[in-house]
């Protein structure tokens, strides 16, 4: 990009130098069995057919009462879907499958210790257990429709069981990722004004049985300081009949779920016939600064959307064994471990521990043992597995027909390893783009219709109509390859309804920037602003360039960090890369590039130089890193996400803040010393 061109682009445009990749086509075998092969779906879900097109998704569910109005736009942008309809999410994920599938496995629970037996929970057993927990929540806790409950639970079958028990009663659940601290849990208890906290005594992570109950004590104490006193703390036992925490129970406040349940055996609770627009759950975004946002997701619209996208984008059939290797503590786990797959009567795998424990072959052994044929994970996990055991997938006899990637853009080099080694060249890949707020996929190829393109999310899924704006609200020409701020032109059933107790923030953060008329009740005037940068290539596929605040403005050139990271991963020795903006007196900001190498490799000047050369070759001299720092490991969250804010603080000689919740806090000082 020339300097002349730079002066013409708006601030929203990002300098893009990525090369377009070649297409990879789905196999005839996959197409022959796929749920969606009809090209006409895009005409049926066109803007001309909106919003009635989403009846197709709603018809995948069982309704007590059909809706009167598909979309209510009377109070924009607080969209309401399937008004007048009555439905229950628990019934749709459990009860309705019993006639045909009661003996089929609903949940395969894989404990982290390999010597522990895998548990197979059938739909009939799931029905029994969900009913008993519902009876306990209603009878012992006095919970009713509209009450909130905070769950702070690990990846165990009791988590989806508890979620579905809440949904059965119309109780709004708020699950907090198990790796979060007691204080973070308290913040969510206070914001949601939860009546109870449901947790677990202990769980396995990296070979250790961690004391989890201690966080509940902190959460209770901190929430009380902020004016919310939990009525009860319910503690599931990791090993029924044995208390595995060193933290003692508090009499009158803490209760062992497994013991209390004995009084509710064989109880049956009729599902509450919920108005479609009533909330199903709160999902708090895990911002490191500021108050966490409670994204409120509705019942009918959300469930219809995750069922539809699970069937047509993930190609889930009832006979499939499906494994989403995410955590239920995030939206991916809610939508695509629990509600979407179970609504379709799939068998969903829940794995307790680290994917690389005790070694990088663990996921492929699990896939082999359970005959998993759909695999769903994040680029973070893919990079970690590629780093720890690049040849491990070839050692095991499993066959995926379909693989999903989710959570962030995947670099083409990593995509190819995922396809060739993990997918054995057989599996289709859907590279999905969406967010906590969105409920389900926004952009992806439809696996039997579109060819795949490494590093590219694909077009909008049926019924989703993206548009790219510059900073001033001008539409960037479609298919132009010019980047800007991606928005969605139309509402969709899976999107969140509001931010809990903060409707003004909801409007300002997601709709105000590109709203054409604040007084309008026409949905066309209220595009959803995703806060991500993107471009649309000539073929109509979207490439997501990351959060807008991750863009580095170097002497007037707006560079997407993902692009620089992708270039560095072309060097064979590099396992992971992270780019952060560093202050520069002349250029304003320059990229600092942190890389970790594959196991057994030592940092060298040769590797550093080749990484730098790759960035210059792929992007240009403007993207030359100020420094390439080869680190022993990246600072990461417990879920494996690289904490770029910590690296940014190191690069700019700032305080990195509280790093105690990281999976590897000790690496921060080590990197700080290396940078010097």
UniProtKB/TrEMBL annotation:
It comes from the Bacteria. Keywords: Acetylation, ATP-binding, Ligase, Nucleotide-binding. The keyword Acetylation applies. InterPro entries: Ac_CoA_lig (IPR011904), ACAS_N (IPR032387), AMP-bd_C (IPR025110), AMP-bd_C_sf (IPR045851), AMP-binding_CS (IPR020845), AMP-dep_synth/lig_dom (IPR000873), ANL_N_sf (IPR042099). Residues 95-492 form the AMP-dependent synthetase/ligase domain. It is an enzyme of class 6 (ligase). Pfam families: ACAS_N, AMP-binding, AMP-binding_C. SUPFAM superfamilies: Acetyl-CoA synthetase-like (SSF56801). Residues 563-641 form the AMP-binding enzyme C-terminal domain. Gene3D superfamilies: 3.30.300.30, N-terminal domain of ligase-like (3.40.50.12780). Its EC number is 6.2.1.1. Residues 45-93 form the Acetyl-coenzyme A synthetase N-terminal domain. GO terms for molecular function: acetate-CoA ligase activity. NCBIfam families: Ac_CoA_lig_AcsA (TIGR02188), PRK00174.1 (NF001208). Belongs to the ATP-dependent AMP-binding enzyme family. This is Acetate--CoA ligase. It comes from Mesorhizobium album. The lineage of its organism: Bacteria, Pseudomonadati, Pseudomonadota, Alphaproteobacteria, Hyphomicrobiales.
